[in-house]
Amino acid sequence: MTGTDRLSAEREFHDRQAADRAAAFRSGRADLAFPDAAFLDHETWVRPAVAALGDLRGRRALDYGCGHGMAAVVLARAGAAVTAFDLSPGYIAEARERAAANGVRVDFRVADGEHLPFPDAAFDAVWGNAVLHHLDLARAGRELSRVMAPGAVGVFCEPWGGNPLLAFARRRLPYPGKHRTQDEHPLTRRDLAPLRDVFPGLEVRGFQLLGMVRRVCRNPAVCRAADRLDAWLLRRLPALRNWCRYAVVTLRKA
Prior knowledge:
Layout: H1 3-26, H2 36-40, H3 46-51, E1 60-64, H4 70-77, E2 81-86, H5 89-101, E3 106-110, E4 123-129, H6 137-147, E5 148-159, H7 164-172, H8 193-198, E6 203-207, H9 220-236, E7 246-252
Parallel strand pairs: 1-2, 1-4, 2-3, 4-5
Antiparallel strand pairs: 5-7, 6-7
Helix pairs in contact: 1-5
């Protein structure tokens, strides 16, 4: 599949998702207004990942592949001047409505993460959630480096592919929310090599080792116990991070 075909397939897939979400809004099953905690605490890695961006007051922030726009709203409420883009016009339409419903100003664009329509050194902070694993990381890395100002930080939350048992489950087993495009796959350390060429100080932090049980278990006490055990294990045995469900990838522009 060519790069153009891949991007067209991605746009079509996410436009279908956005259309399904729009139908839910029209039927009154969803609310565009939300508190920050609804985004920051919907997965265990999100709050610490946003914190890694640092103090956003007065900084220029890019929501890279903004989807439904919740992150863009949270970044704007934290004091950033936010620009957000997505490949899907359908998602951009939802994100604009969400920003308006929450009373924040965000500059939304329809764009492709491998060909960014922004000037050099335009941003001090970049946020992305489940977007890098859809992209050609050599192209994306060059564009990220171009639009990040000196000293800028980029933080990306991505599904991680280092656990062979989890890889089998992702391929073979049914579970809630299992929707993906043809070409996407969880990232591995090898996949990150093109990004590391551009950002030599790239950092990877794993989340949800035992905590991935929450994909099939809704018992809050069990999930909290798994999270506490994860914190203990991952501090003492860092190599286990490669077996986690998700990773937070941090990039810093020199």
